[in-house]
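Worked Example 4.2. Read the sequence first, then its C-alpha cells.
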Amino acid sequence: MTVYDVIVLAGGAARRLGGADKPGLRVGGRSLLDRVLSVCTGARTTVVVGGRRPTPRPVVWARETPVGGGPLAALDAGVRKTDQDIVLVLSADLPFLAEKTVHSLLAAARSDHREGAMCTDPDGRDQPLVAAYRAEPLRRELALLATEHGHLAGLPLRLLTGELDLARVEAGPLASFDCDTWEDIAAARARIREHGTVLNEWITAAKNELGIELDVDTDVLLDLARDAAHGVARPAAPLTTFLVGYAAAMASRGKSPEAAAEAVAEAARKAAALALRWQEEADTGSGDGTT
C-alpha cells in the first residue's frame, strides 16, 4: 500500500458560481469537500487549503498567501504541511471522484522513473488537480517558479506541470468532472439520483450524517424491506429495517467493525425469515393445519 499525504484545494473565488461557497455546496446530501475527503481516507496527513469549516474527519488547515492567490500559491501552502514522499493533489469540487482513480494515480506516481502522475479526461486534457506528485520534485519546481517570478500568485498550473515528468492516467468521464457553474451543480445532482446509483448514494450520505463507518450490504436490507412490505404490510418495511439496525447495534457493542457487519447480516437474515413465514401463512390461509 502506498503511503501518501493529500492536499485538497478548497479556496478560490468561485466567480462563475456568483461567489458561492463552492466546497460547501451539497451534491447527494454531502458537501463537495466531504465527498472528496471520503476517497482519500488512507492519507497519513490530509491538508485542506481554504477557509476552515466542519469536516467528517480531522484535517490540517492551510491558507495560501495572498488569500485567493491561485492554485500554485495554494499548493505551495499545502505542501509545507506534508512530509510523505508522495502527495495526492485534488480540487474540492470533484463529486464523482472514486477511490479506484486515487489508487491508480498513487500506483503510477510510485514508479521510480517518473515524478508523479495526473489524470487525463476523455478528450485527452491534463487534470493537474487530480494528480499524485513526488514531493521532492514538486517542492523543487515550486521554489524555482517563486524565484523566477518573485511570487506564485496568479501563475498557471501548466508552468509547474510542464517541468515535471508525469505519467498520464486515463480515467472515466466522471473522475475529473468538476463543478464550476450552477449548471454543473445541477447536472451532478441529477446524476446522483439516477436509478442505478441513488440507493448507494443515499446510504453513503446517511452513514456520513450519522457518523457510521460500518459497511452495509444494501442488497440484503433492500430484500428484507421488500419481503416485509409484501409479506406483512407496507409500513413494516421501514420499521423492520430500524429494528434490524437496533438489534445489530445491541449485539455488536464493543466489537470490531467486521463483527458489527456480521451482526447486521445475521439480524437481517432472521427478520427476512420471519417475513417469509408471515407470507407463507398469508398464502396458505388460516385453519388448514399448517405451521
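Now turn to a second chain, presented in exactly the same format:
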Amino acid sequence: MAGAAAFGAATVAVGMAFAGVAAVTGQVAASSRAANGLALAVLGVAFVVRAIGDVQAEWLSWLSPIHWGQAMRVYADERWWVLAVPALACATLLVVATRLADRRDLGAGVMAQRAGRAEAGRWLRGPLGVAVRLHRGAVVGWLAGVVLLGAFYGVVADEADDMVADNPELAEFLAGLGGGSITDAFLATGVLVIGLLVGGYVVSAMLRMRAEEAAGRAEPLLATPLPRWRWAASHLAVGSIAACAMLVAGGVAQGVGAALATGDGSLVARVAVAAVAMVPAPLVLGAVAFLICSATPRWSLASWAVFALAAAVGLLAEALGLPGWVSDLSPYRHIAPAPAVPVRVLPLAVLVVVAGAAVAVGFDRLRRRDVGTV
C-alpha cells in the first residue's frame, strides 16, 4: 500500500514541477507553439542531465525533476521527504509565472516578438518558401533535441557493459537485438530512439499542414493559381527533408560521441549508416499522417495514435510478447538494428514503396474533397 501511494505521489509531484515549468514558459512566449517548444526543451535538458548524473555524478541528477520521482525509492525504503523538492520547485515557478504575468501585455509574452519586414522576401513568393518559413522554428527545435539525444547515447556507450551488469532486463533487451557487442546493441537502441523522435516530428509537421487549412490560412493561397498538390507537396517535402537531416545529424552526433568515449573511430560511419537506414520508418509515419489529414481531416489527430502504436510496438514487442502480425504493424520492426547487425536493403525499399503509396492516395483524396473541411 505504501509503495503504491509513493508511486502515485511521485508521479504527481514530478508532473507538478513540469506544470510549473509550463506556467513560466506560457508567460515568456507569445504563442502556444513557442511556449510548448520551450517547455519541451526544458524536458529534454532535464532528461539529459538526469541521465548524465546517473552515470557519472549523482548530485547532478538532483538538478533534474525526472530524478526526484526516482529518488523516492518507490516499493523499497520510501523517502517521503523527497516530495518537498518538487513541491518547492512548483511553488517557486508559480510565483515566477505570476510575476511575469503582471509584467507582460495581454496577448503577448515577456519575450517580444520580432517585427517582420514590411515586404516579404523573394523566397516567400512560392509555396515551398512559405512552408519552410512555417516549419523553420519547429525544425530547429527538434533538430537540437535529436542531436543532444544522439550525443548522449554516444557518450555513455562506453558504459553499456556496466549498465547491463546492473540491469538484467536491459541485458535481455539488448541481447534480443541480435549479434554484435553490447556496445553495438546499445548504439542500435539509440538509433531506434532517435528514429522514434523523428517520427514524432514528421507527424507534427503533417498536422501543421492541417492546422494551416483548419485556420483558413491555406484558402488565400489556394485562391490563386496555386494547385492543391503543390501546396501540400511543399509541406510534405519540408517535413521529409527535415526528417532525413535530423536522422543524419543525430546519427553523426551519436557516432562522434561513441568514438570519443570508446576510442573506436569507425563508429562514426557505422552509426551514421544505421541512422540513414532508419529513414524509411519515420517517412512511413509521415505518409500515413498525410493520408489521414488529406482523406479524413476531422480525424487528423488519429495520426498520433498511429505514431503511439508504432513506437510502443517498436520498443516493447519482445517485452510484451506480441504476436508477429502485431509486431509487423510498426515500420520500425522491419529495420535491422544496425550497427548490431548488418543493414537489410529489401525491407527499406518496401517501406519506401508503402510510404509512396500512402502519399499518392493522400494527394488523390485531397484533390477530391473541399478545402477547409473540418
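Notes for the reader: The chain has a mean pLDDT of 85. DSSP finds 16 helices and no strands in the chain.
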